[in-house]
Amino acid sequence: MIVRKTLRSIVCIFSILACSIIAQAQTPLRLACLSHNAVMQRMTQYHEAQKSLKALRSQYEAEAKRSEEDFQRKFVEFMDGQKDFPETILLKRQNELQNMLESNAKFRLKVQDLLAKAEKDLMGDVKAVLVEAVQAVATEEGYGLVLNTDGDSVSFIADGVATDITNKVLRKLDIAPVD
Predict the structure, then answer these.
(1) Domain with 33 in it: what CATH number?
(2) What pLDDT score does 12 carry?
């Protein structure tokens, strides 16, 4: 179902692209390309986002470590006193330890989800700035299509077919161009 929708979308996009190419036969479609990742990694916002993620990860790791140490301390106390405890206290302490284990495991899972969401949000903001700069350069330079060369999404671009606009986008973002 999802594959069909994706294929339909791709066919629709290519149909629109073909129609616009045919309609503008006198004005050839200009193509450009760049690596989003290469540009993003030079952006101040990217480094700020990475720093925020690192700080958040450190806080979560510190809390997980504290919980783990608390569990270990209680476990040692339980093991030391288990032969002297009446059965009701023994069962109560076992339940406490079991609850602590489950709570720690749930916390770790929740942390993974929270970190993934934080990364998505922070990097989404960085990508939005990048996309805005790419759109501005493409509009100014008259490009009809800009390809992102990251992640094997574009297998081949023949020489002269597309212009690399990496340095223009970097300048638009007030970042020194790549030599």
Answers:
(1) 3.30.910.20
(2) 44
Residue 126 lies in a domain: yes
Distance between CA atoms of residues 105 and 62, nearest Å: 15
Task: Evaluate whether 112 touches 139 at the Cβ level (below 8 Å).
Answer: no
Q: Flag the least confident range among 22-31, 52-61, 137-146, 160-169.
A: 22-31
Q: Is 153 exposed, middle or buried (0-12, 13-18, 19+ CB in 10 A)?
A: exposed
pTM, two decimal places: 0.71
Average pLDDT of the chain to the nearest whole number? 87
When divided into structural domains, the chain yields a total of 1
Q: Is residue 179 part of a domain?
A: no
Q: How many CA atoms lie within 13 A of 33 on its CB side?
A: 15
On whether residue 27 sits in a domain, the answer given is yes
Encoded tokens for 41: 């990694």
pLDDT at position 137 over 70: yes
Q: Which domain holds residue 149?
A: 2-172
| Both tokens assigned to 4 | 């069909």
Query: Is 177 among the domain residues?
Result: no
Pick the range with the lowest mean pLDDT from 41-50, 62-71, 80-89. 80-89
163 strand-pairing partners: 32
Distance CA 147, CA 151 (A): 12
